[in-house]
Each structure stands twice: as C-alpha cells, then as structure tokens.
Amino acid sequence: MTTSRADLPLLVDRSAGPPLALQLTAQLRDAVTTGVLLAGDKLPSTRDLATTLEVSRTVVTTAYAQLFAEGWLEGRHGSGTYVADVVPALPRLPDAAPSPAPDLSSALAAFSTSPPAPAARPAARDSGSASNFIELVTGVPWAAGIDPAMWRRAWRHAGTQAPSFFPDPFGLPELRAELAHYLRRSRGLAVTPEHVLVTRGVANGLSAIAAALVQPGDRVGVEEPGYEGAREVLRRAGAQIVACRVDGAGVVPEELPGDLKLLYVTPAHQYPLGGRLPVHRRQALTAWARSTGAVIVEDDYDGEFRYDVAPLPALYSMDPEVVVYLGTASKMLTPVFGVGWLAASPDLVRLLAERRREVSERVPEPAQHALLAMLTSGDLERHVRRMRLEYGRRRAALMTLPELRGDSAGLHVVLELRRPAAEFVDAAAERGVGLSDVDRFFLGPPTLNAVVLGYGATPLTQVRRAAAALLPLLPT
Ligand SMILES: Cc1ncc(COP(=O)(O)O)c(C=O)c1O
C-alpha cells in the first residue's frame, strides 16, 4: 500500500518573496533533486496539501502543473500524483507551458497499489548527479506501459490452472496451437502447432539450436555489427564465430563464406543498425543456405514495432526448410516475463524437445498459461498496438535529430556522426544523456562512427529532453 508523503517539509512565506505557487514549485523540485522525494513517492492530493499549508488549492494545482510539465511528476489514473521514475536532465525551461495532463507514458504507469521500481539508474558520471541523467538504453521495452488490468487477468488465469503432472518439453499444447495461430496472422508464417516450440526467449531458443546442431569448432556466422548476446550464446556452444558484414540494409549475402554451419540474422530490423533486409537479399540468403547446407536462424525480436512501413515476408516463410524462426515476448512485454517461441520443421522441433527432455530443461508453466491468456483474449495484440503508438511518439521526438538511420522499426535508432563517437558520448553525458557507442556491437574493429539511442524504456518527456540536449551537439 502506498502512503502519500503528507509529512513533506514544505513552507510557504506569505510575507514576502515570490508568489506562493512558485515557492512551492521550487521546494518540491529541490525535494526531488536532493533525494527527499524518491521516484515513485506519492504526493499528497492538492486538496490535502492546500489544507496543510493553509493556501488555496489553486496554489498547489499550479505548482503541480508546472512540475508535471517539467517532467518531475507523473499522474496515474485515479490514483494520484507521483514523483516520476526518471528525473529530467536539463535545467527547467522557464517558459515551459504548464499542463496538468501527464502524457500517456505516465498515465499508463498505473501499477496496482505499489509504484513501479524506479528505472535503472546509470552509473554516476563525472559530470553531474546520476539522478538527473537520462539513459537512452537499447534493448529494453517500457514495462510500465503494460496495462495492470491485462497483467492481472493473465496471471489470474494462470493461477486457476492446475499444474501438469510433468513439464511438456515442447511447451503447453494449447499455447503451441495459439502461437501457431498468432504467427500465421501476425507474420504470415504457414505453421501448425507441430512447427512451434515454446522457449524462454531468443537466447534460450538459440542456445537450444546450437546445442542440437553445432559441434565444437563449427564455423557459425553472426552479423557484424550485431547482437552480443547471440554471439556469446554461440561462442559458449563451442562455435567458431565468423563476423559477416552488414550494411545499411542488413547482412550482405554475396560475401557469406560457404563453410558456415549456421548463420544468425535479424532481417526484420538489423540489430543494431536497423536495416530491413530487402526481398532480393532474403532470396539470396535462403539460396545460399540451400547451396551450402547452412541453417539460418532468424531473430524476429522486435518485429511487432514497425512504423510507416509494410511488413516484409519473414525469411522463414520464404524457405521453412533452411530457416529457424525465433520470437520473444521480451520486447512486446518485458524481458522478465521469460517466454518466447521458435518455429522450425516438425523434425527439428522434435529433436530440440528431446534434447530439452534429456537435460530436464523447461519453460515455467504458469508463464505459459499467462501468455496463452493474453493471446486468446486479444490483450497482447491490443497492448502491442498501444505500445506501437507510444514508441512511435518517442521515435518522432528523436527524429528531430539529423543523420538518423534504422528508424523504421524497433525501439532504438542509430545516429551517425562526423566526430568520434566516444567524444560525442562524453559530450552527451555532460548534457545529461547516456548513449551507447556502436563500437560495442562489433566483434572486430569498428567500421562505423555512430551511437545508438534506445527509447523503449524512456518516457516521452525524457526522450524530448534528451533530443533537445543532443541537438546543439550536432551539425546543422
Ligand atoms: C537482437 C536481440 N535479440 C534478442 C534479444 C533478447 O531476446 P530474449 O530476451 O528473448 O532472449 C535482444 C535483447 O536485447 C536483442 O537485442
């Protein structure tokens, strides 16, 4: 149960000084920056605070409205006013238009009776306090955007399901059937339940494939630059990792070696550069796999989030015999949910399930039931539609920056730079914005000078502030 901070040390001085609302605004802002108020703390209602301070309610509403507009506070439908989970990086703008209406980000953050955990705080930078820092992290979705009612419905359903006698190594049959249905309607994959294996996510699916198909020393291709997590999973399976060049559109099929056992790719939204692999390259890729005997692993980690572009056919649907498709709820919902899926030939699915049985590996059944409930009720797809709009707004806020790429899908964009990226990262940090140098996605020497800006976990107000802070650092 959240109690509001009615005991806040606030004072108003009627005898002199600035107007009462300004005094209150300044004191509340100070309380946040000095840590007296923490992310998620509930503020007293305007009525209660007005009574305590013996001021008119308009004084308090004006102060709250200003702090909302600056991003220090957020509102949750029907449950009051809270300290925002990320505090703004920039000094407040004196002329910011006060608006008591919180943006959708804030409104959706209503989570039962307890506030969400504050967003991960960045490590303190040399310059300035960590609490004022906006971290544009990549790969993390906005878990606070999950509608609490939908979440409760799903887990209530899961709680009513009696546990099975023993874990099914394929995953719950009803979930496999529903996932097949989902993949058919959302991705155009011609699959039946026999093609589907329930996993704990992309990393888990990839690790199962590697355990079944890759022998120590086998040469396995990964995108360069690419997803470090996938590289590491394959390396731990004993594979010899081969970096395969990626350009603005994705992997370059003509340059692929002929001796790869497996190739891991992200054709819908290349991670991290954001290319969408064109159809002719997709055809060239599957032809390459057929001629060399390699297996292609298609990671469709964030394919749900597409903006202003039509979907391209999944690689899997172009040649299901040479492609294994990996999907996950990690970006749609949250990585802590820990459920994903894989589509492959029924033979491979049986082999993977058998291997899983041998090592007693399983996907927790309650989470499978919860996913099933979200799929059958339509809640999951409604959630994705809502999030697409929300992420679209954040992306639009970043589009004010020049030289962006990879912006047609996903939860991040790439900003190409003329000056050294490391220097830009430092300059951005000095202005209160945390970014990733694209370097870390390279296995070999980096060939691109760029930074990655993730907006999945950062509320719209903060994304706007970050964009405003970065703009002066870029050439006009
Ligand atoms: C390209 C890519 N694939 C997959 C994942 C994670 O998927 P999962 O949580 O299902 O393992 C990430 C997470 O950042 C990612 O960037």
Structure description:
There is one protein chain. The chain has helices spanning 20-33, 46-53, 57-70, 104-107, 148-159, 173-187, 202-213, 228-236, 279-292, 315-318, 346-358, 365-377, 379-398, 421-430, 460-470, and strands spanning 73-76, 80-83, 134-135, 196-199, 219-224, 240-247, 250-251, 262-265, 295-299, 323-328, 340-343, 404-405, 412-416, 433-434, 436-437, 450-454. By secondary structure, it is α/β, with parallel strands linked by helices. The protein has an eight-stranded mixed sheet, with helices on both faces. Strands 12-13-16-15 form a four-stranded antiparallel sheet, covered by helices on one side. Helix 6 (173-187) crosses helix 12. It is globular, with a radius of gyration of 25 Å. The chain starts with 19 loop residues before the first helix and ends in a 6-residue tail after the last helix. The model is unreliable at 88-129 (pLDDT under 50). The site of pyridoxal-5'-phosphate (PLP) has 14 residues, from helix 7.
Helix-strand layout with pairing:
Elements: H1 20-33, H2 46-53, H3 57-70, E1 73-76, E2 80-83, H4 104-107, E3 134-135, H5 148-159, H6 173-187, E4 196-199, H7 202-213, E5 219-224, H8 228-236, E6 240-247, E7 250-251, E8 262-265, H9 279-292, E9 295-299, H10 315-318, E10 323-328, E11 340-343, H11 346-358, H12 365-377, H13 379-398, E12 404-405, E13 412-416, H14 421-430, E14 433-434, E15 436-437, E16 450-454, H15 460-470
Parallel strand pairs: 3-14, 5-6, 5-8, 8-9, 9-10
Antiparallel strand pairs: 1-2, 4-11, 6-7, 10-11, 12-13, 13-16, 15-16
Bound molecules: pyridoxal-5'-phosphate.
